[in-house]
Amino acid sequence: MVVMTREDGKDESLLKELREISDKHSSYKNRSNEPIETHRVVVSSSASSDRNISENNMVPRDNVDKSEADKFLCETAENSDLNQYWYSKNTIETICDAIRECFSISEGTRVAFISTPSLFFSLSLKEREQSALFDFDTSWESCSGYHFYDYKDPANVKEECLGVFDLVVIDPPFITQSVWENYAITAKLLAKGDTSEQRIIATTVNENDILMKDLFGCKPAAFQPSIPHLVYQYSVFTNFPSSALAEMNSELTEKEATRKCDK
Hints:
- The protein has helices at residues 11-25, 67-75, 89-103, 117-120, 125-129, 177-190, 209-216, 250-262, and strands at residues 111-114, 131-135, 146-148, 167-170, 199-205, 219-220, 234-238.
- It is of the alpha/beta class.
- The model is unreliable at 1-11, 22-66 and 257-263 (pLDDT under 50).
């Protein structure tokens, strides 16, 4: 399997930038002296073959069942070589609730998940039938709805997937502008309608706020994701209002309060 690495020639400056971000925003600031990878969080799947999730071992549920998040987190190990650092259970469930708000708009709503398998597999079976997963890791290829995706070839999208998705959910393996620009190319190919109608949920560091606005018209939501093994803080960006993302994440608030008491 090909392992995605940092972009050549950018390691030193990007690592310096991430350390600065970590010092300012991370709920895990006490770990900021550890090496920091330029990775994503929830994006790709486990590289180990014994961790593959197939349709056979997913429990079919037509109704919302948040235990799917538990199932994914218990069965799917993080792989730092593939930049895999999962959201917490509460974060997965909250972002999935925001996705369900879009499902509720119309019966035929379709959702594209680009490099976000933990969210895709935390939906019910019925919801996944209305969705598609675009991911670099081929260990998901036996799953219904999977499409291989390489951000280095952003326009390589099957014709059947062009312009059919009402919502696109994105979390790239890197936070750099060049990578996000490639993901934006793919998102716009997948999304239905013109730019004003396309709904986007994206997660990245808050320092990318201007980039998110320029690429998608997105703004940061009040809710920020908890990523237990990531040393710097991400934000959730959307270009539509979401009641599910309108409140602050109590997990982060509690960690901040604990850290202040320890000082």
